[in-house]
Structures
1.
Amino acid sequence: MPFSTDPEHIAISKSKGVKIDWKDGHRSEYGLKYLRDRCPCASCSGAHGTPPRVPEPDEPAPSANPFQMYKPALKMLGVDPVGNYAIRINWSDGHSTGIYSYDHLRRICPCDMCKGGV
C-alpha cells in the first residue's frame, strides 16, 4: 500500500525536533540531529561535485586534551513553510538552505515500520 506524503498535522519543537501525523494515519518523529544529518540541500548531499557533509558522531571522540571546546546544542532557530510541499529549517549552526519536502521527510521516517523492522 502506498504511503501518504500529505501531512495532517506538524508539531515543531525547536529544541527536540519535528513530529508529523500523516493523512494515512502514520506518525513520524524526527530528532534534531537526525534531521540535520539528512539535510537534502546540494552542499550537504554532495550534489554538483562537492563532498557530502559528514555527520558528526553521537559521542565525542576521546581526546588527550581534557579541555574540550564547548559546543552549543543544535537547535532550530526557525521553520518556514515552502509552498504546500515542504519546510525550510534555519539551524543554529548557521545552515538554512535545506528544503525538506514532505516526500523526503516521509522517505526518511526513522520508525521501525518504515525501516523494515516491523
Note: The chain has a mean pLDDT of 87.
2.
Amino acid sequence: MLRRSFTAVLEKNSTFTSDFATEPYEAGWALEARWFVRILEISPGAGLTMTAQISPDGLFWCDEESGPFCLNEVGLASMPLRNFGQWLRLDARLSGKNPHVKVLIYLAVKG
C-alpha cells in the first residue's frame, strides 16, 4: 500500500505581537504528524510557547498531552504527534515586553 503524505503551510512570513492560534487542520486520515516552527525574527527578550491542540470537530479544543515547546531565538524547531484524533492546530503564547515574532509554521502529516 502506498502511504500518503502532505505538508500544509499554515503561516508564511506572518508577524505577531500577541497570542494566536493557527487555522485548524483536518488530519483524521493521518497516522502521524509533525509541526515545524521556524522563527525568522523575534524581539529581544521575547518568548514563543507553542502547544499542540486537538479537537474532534474543529470547534472545541484541548491541549495534546505532549506539552508545550518554547522558542526564544531565530531557528527551526519541531514537535512530533501520534494518536491525535481528527483536527490539529497550534496555540501560541507570546511573552516579554512588547513581543514581536515573524514565523513560518508547517504541518507535515502522513498516513
Note: The chain has no helices and ten strands.
3.
Amino acid sequence: MCLATVYKESDDTVICRNVSKILVEGDNLIIRDIMGDETTVEGKILMVDLANSIVKLQCD
C-alpha cells in the first residue's frame, strides 16, 4: 500500500499524513487517511509524486 503526505504548496504545511484517498468534488478536495478520518479543503492538486508519496495542494 502506498500512503501519501499532503502538503500546502505555499509554505509546505502538512495538511494530512497517511493519506489513502483524495476525492475531488468541484473546488473541494476530500482527503481520507488510513483510519478513515476526512479533511476537506478548498483548492486544487498541483503535483503528485508517487515515488516519494508526496501530494502538493494550492489552497485558498
Note: The longest strand covers residues 13-25.
